[in-house]
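Would you mind giving me a polypeptide sequence along with per-residue C-alpha cells?
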Amino acid sequence: MSGGSVSLGPHLSYRAEKSVAPSSTGSRTTSVRCRGISRGPVRPAIPPPLSSVYAWGGGLGTPLRLPMLNTEVIQVAAGRTQKAGVTRSGRLILWEAPPLGAGGGTLLPGAVEQPQPQFISRFLEGQSGVTIKHVACGDFFTACLTDRGIIMTFGSGSNGCLGHGSLTDISQPTIVEALLGYEMVQVACGASHVLALSTERELFAWGRGDGGRLGLGTRESHSCPQQVPMPPGQEAQRVVCGIDSSMILTVPGQALACGSNRFNKLGLDHLSLGEEPVPHQQMEEALSFTLLGSAPLDQEPLLSVDLGTAHSAAVTASGDCYTFGSNQHGQLGTNARRGNRAPCKVQGLEGIKMAMVACGDAFTVAIGAEGEVYSWGKGARGRLGRRDEDAGLPRPVQLDETHPYTVTSVSCCHGNTLLAVRPVTDEPVPP
C-alpha cells in the first residue's frame, strides 16, 4: 500500500500507512500445523513479506494483519493503548488508530455492522543514531532498550514509571539518566512499574510499589531506578512484569517472584503436585523476590513465563505448558472453572512442544515450536482471535498466511494480543 509522509512538528515525523480489515470471504488457514498453505487455485509465485504482524482483541474478532512500511519486525509489545514493534534495522514502529476524520470509520448505505478498526503505522523519528533492540509497553508508557545498553522511556509519567525522578509526561523517548553508568540488556514493563537488568546481572526497579511488586522489601513507589537485592546465589537472567507483580528467571532456570500472589498466580505457595494449601499456608504477597514453591514450577527449568492480571503461565524446558492462578474464565486451559491454587498442566496440547506463552487479563496465548498458535480463556471482544465465546481448552488461531511461517514474538496486555511472524525459507536469517 502507498504511504505518505506526515509532519508532526520539528521533532517527529512519520510515514503513514493504513491497515484495512480483510474481507470476510478472504482465504484463511485451515490448519495451524500446515502454517498457511493455500488451498485455492494456483497463483503466480509472490515472494512472502519480510514479516507480518497481527493484532486481535479490543473488538477485533479475528487476527488483523497490520501495515508494515516494507520492513521486517522482529519483536512486538502491547500496552493498554500502545502497539509497538522493533525492526531488524533497529527502528521503533508504532501502530495507532487514525485521527478522527481520517476516514475508514463510516458505514456504507444499508450496512448494519461497524467495519473493523483500521490502524496507521509510523516510525518514531527524531532519534538520530539510535538503534533500538527491544521495546516494552506499560499501560500508558513505553520503554526502549538501545544497542548501546541505554534505556529510554516516554508516555505517561504517573507513578514515576518513566524513571526520570518526576511524574511528568514525556512525548519523546528520553534517556533514563540514572542508569547511564550501566550497560542494560533487558527491560520489562508492568501496568505502572519497570524492571531492568544489566550485563553484570544487576537488577533495577522503579514505578508503582504496591504489594511489593518492585522487590525492594517495601510497598513504596519510586520515580528513579532502585537497585534490587537478590537472594544469595541467585543471578537474574530474564525479567518479566505483570499488572501488579514481577518475576525473574535465574541462570539455572529457576524462577523468583514478588508482588501480589492472589490465587497463587506467582506460584509462591509451597505445594506438592496436586496439593491444595491450608489457608494459613497461602502467601498473598511477597515484598522481596522469593523462590517459587509450587510444584513442578520449583523443580523444572522454565523456558518462557508470562504474568496476566489474575493468572500466569509457564513453558518448561521440556516443552510442557503450565498455568496457575484464577480460572474464572477458563484461562488455565483445564476445562474446569473451579479455583485451584496448584499449577495445572494445560490440557489438549499433548504431543505438541510449546515454545512461548503470553497472558492477557483473562486469557492465554501459547506458541508451539512448529509455529502453532493456540488461545483459551475469556472470549469477549475478540480476545481469543476467533469469533467464539469463552474456551476452557486450547483451540487454534488461524493466521491469513500463504507461506509456511514461524512466530518470532507474541505479547498480550489486558484484552489485546500482538503477534509477529516471518516466513520459513531456505535462506539464512540475518543476525
